[in-house]
Amino acid sequence: LHEKRYDDALRELQQANQRNPRNLCRIAEAYEGKGDLQKAKEFWTKAAHFNEMSSSYALVRNKAMRKLAER
Predict the structure, then answer these.
(1) DSSP structural state of residue 18
(2) Per-residue confidence of the chain (71 residues) as pLDDT tens digits?
(3) Residue 59's CB: how many other CB atoms inside 10 A?
């Protein structure tokens, strides 16, 4: 993501643990970077409404909710 190689990032992230809300946010960021705002919104929504309690979730929920509010 940092290098703006969004397609490469998405390939890697699609193989990552989808039950980790940080990964869901990273996927959303990659889609945003590509300009695919619909897919980005889908993954921001998944991250914002992630229903497992974990420390990872607490760290990303606010970011995901802010991104959804921008839409």
Answers:
(1) T
(2) 889 999 999 999 999 998 888 899 999 999 999 999 999 999 999 988 877 766 666 667 778 888 888 87
(3) 12
